[in-house]
Structures are given as C-alpha cells and as structure tokens.
Amino acid sequence: MAQVNLIELSTTSLEKEGCYCLRSKPKSEGYRKKSEWLKSQFQHGLKYVNLKENGKAAGFIEYAPIEASSRVVYGENYLVIHCLWVHVTGKGYASKLIQTCLQDAKELGKAGVIVVTNPSTSWTPSKDIFIKNDFKEIAKAPYDFELLVCKFGDAADPYFPNNWEERLHHYEELTILRTKQCPYIEVATEVVFAAAAKLEMEPRVVDIQKREELLAISPTPYGVYGVVYKKQLVAFHRLTMKAVMKKIKEIDNEA
C-alpha cells in the first residue's frame, strides 16, 4: 500500500520541500524566481500543496484567493486554482488535491472555487477532472479558454472580461508580458529572444508586478505569460524557437 502525504509549503518549509515544477533544476533562474514569488504570496493567502507517494513527488496544486490570483477572472470571495499536476496517474491523486482545495474553500467561508482551463495546451489543467469533481463550465474566452466554477451556494458567478481584442491593440512591437508565477516562463522568454535574434528583432519585456496590472493588460485569461506582435497574439505558453519564428513571419506576411 502506497503511503500518500499532502504537504503544504510555507516560507520556512519551501527550501526543504521545494516546488514541484523544475525541481530537477533548483538553481535555474526560473526556479529561483518561482521560489521568491511563492514567499511573497504566502502572506496573501496562496496555498501550494505537494502530494508525495512513498516520500517522492507525485503531484501538486496551487491556488489563491481571487484578489491575489494570477488568472484574469473577476468575482468575489472565490479561490482560484492556478495549477494542478500529477504524474502518478490512475490513483485519484488529482481528485484528492482538488478536494483538498474545495474543503479549504468551505472552511474559509468562500463562495466556491474557480479554475481556467484550455484544451489546446498542457499549460493549464485538464477540464475533465474538474467536471468529475462537480465543477461546471460557465464561460469561454478567445484562444479556447474556459471558465469553470464549483459554487457552494447562490453567489454571483465569476466572469471573464470582454475586451480581449482591445488589449492586443496596445502592442505593435514584439512584446513579452510575464510574471514570476510559473518557473517555465523564464525558459519561454529565452526561446522568444532566441527566435527574435534570428529575425534581427529586439523584444520588449513587460514584467507584471500587481494583479491590477495583470487584469488590465494581459492578452488572455492565463495572465502570467503572453507574447504579442503587431496587435496579434503570438503565444500564451512556451513554444519552440521554430514555432515562434513561424508565427512572427505569418503575422508579417498578413501585414
């Protein structure tokens, strides 16, 4: 019988336990920035829970109060799941982590729990596991984003903004909008710079620091990473260098 433990990270336990993503490269820039970001967000109610099977990392969940969330969604008194990932499948670990979040939300007196999904990328959690755990899809946004919620009562539904096209119009030059929420954002940024160098371009980087800024300028609900060029979305998750170059060339050809 496997021994399963849920370990909630804190400022003091972070160095010992570590975060799940990029755990094999704890000295990388992305991992370092993620650790710094976690320390700054614990005081705002963010929770990061590692699941271990027989002492080894098997998955994790990260969630935060909506007012401190890294997703572009509006609502009152909700928790928002940022990330859910398990690599030991078929044992109900994903549901176990989701139920931990739901129970926490109930104990905190929240209206429910929100998650943003997208079937076209693995950078967001899969919708199916949330449907299985009583979430309902209530809205969609461009680029295949879906808004799911599990409500405990009759509170008002959360919602996406509706000005996605307008947000893109602020960016003519190649621009990377990013936060420190995901450790892979650093790698994704490096790929864009490498692609831009081959095309003799110089990307502009906007480091988003506050939720108010994220809500105002993010080109997608994902919030923490986006690449825009000539008022068009290039990417909201890591691409290969060839894929970035191809997208930029396609946009130039349309111009």
TrEMBL record:
Pfam family, one: Acetyltransf_1
Domain annotation N-acetyltransferase: ranges: 4-177
InterPro entries linked: Acyl_CoA_acyltransferase (IPR016181), GNAT_dom (IPR000182)
Protein name: N-acetyltransferase domain-containing protein
Native source species: Sutcliffiella rhizosphaerae
